[in-house]
Amino acid sequence: MNPIPELGPMLKQLRLSGILDSLEARNREAIDLKLAYTDFLALLIQDEIARREQKKFTSRLRRATFRTNKTLDQFDFDRLPKLNRALVHDLATNRYIAENAPVLIVGQVGVGKSHLAQALGHCAIRRGIDTVFTSCAQLVTTLNAARATGAYERKLATLARVPLLIIDDFGLKPLRPPQDEDLHDLIAERYERASTIVTSNLDFTEWDQAFPNNRLLASASVDRLRHNAYCIELEGPSGRSPKVAPPPHKSKLAITQKPAHS
Fold first, then answer.
1. Residue pair 169/136 in contact by the 8 Å Cβ criterion
2. Would you call 235 helix, strand, or coil by DSSP?
3. Most C-beta atoms within 10 A of its C-beta, which of 13, 105, 239, 250?
4. CA-closest candidate to residue 131, choices 141, 120, 144
5. Half-sphere exposure of residue 44, counting CA atoms within 13 Å on the CB side?
């Protein structure tokens, strides 16, 4: 008698229906290898744990809202010979998240700031750490929209609790009131409580230019971001080189000549 069909409803009741995906294969494996019942059960439990971890990873990856699927394995270190690789690989261990320390990444357009930030985000998600990726412009727009609907405090609290927040393209557009206040409030709420990765085209000495209307907010915000921060400067050529068009093909049509008449 094959008990597998009868197991389906019971596994669903126990919220273990995922075991059904590998049950038949594991059963055949147990028979072929003459596994003990405990070894067979261990294999099923391992499969279920792996499925649940993959499901959690997929869910975290979706909530992170990364622009693209950029990982550290895909990062071209050879293009940036001055980059401190040891620091990058240390950051990939997520130790800075346990320290609630910021990571600040600066460099010219196209050198890989967003790629590196998202890659570190992937490292965090693989360790089960919730992560949110957003551009600075999108972030302040979201906070402003929440204010318009009376949900500002709730949205601010939600963003403040995210274990890792990645803010891309800081300073790309100047912050106007109340954008500058909103960003300052978020930075202040996360200060020494959660880790924030920030990328910018501006040099560190130019970050106050992102707050053109309020130098006091600029000083307070930048000071909090830079305190105990890991700073990375990317120097190298842009990785966004345009594709070169192939040369036009010469026509291979044969040209026939009529013989001259005498």
1. yes
2. coil
3. 105
4. 120
5. 21
Length of the chain equals: 262
Beta bridge mates, 103: 197, 230
Best CA proximity match to 108, nearest among 62, 47, 172: 172
Within 10 A of 64 (CB to CB), how many other CB atoms are there? 20
The yes-or-no verdict on residue 262 having pLDDT over 50 is no
Give the pair of three-digit tokens for residue 189: 């709420």
d(CA 186, CA 218): 13
pLDDT digits (tens, 9 = 90+) for 196-233: 999 999 999 999 999 999 999 999 999 999 999 999 99
Reference 231, options 85, 86, 80, 104; nearest CA is: 104
Tokens of 11: 């596994």
pTM above 0.70, yes or no: yes
| Burial bucket for residue 139 (CB in 10 Å: 0-12, 13-18, 19+) | buried
Please report how the helices 4-13 and 20-33 are oriented relative to each other, as an axis angle in degrees rounded to 10: 130
Q: Are strands 131-135 and 195-200 parallel, antiparallel or unpaired?
A: unpaired
Nearest to 66 by CA among 105, 124, 127: 124
231-260 residues labelled b (16+ CB within 10 A) or e (exposed): ebebebeeeeeeeeeeeeeeeeeeeeeeee
Q: 156 with 186: CB under 8 angstroms?
A: yes
Helix H or strand E encompassing 105: strand 103-107
Token digits of residue 48: 């279920």
Give the chain's largest Cα–Cα span.
Answer: 101
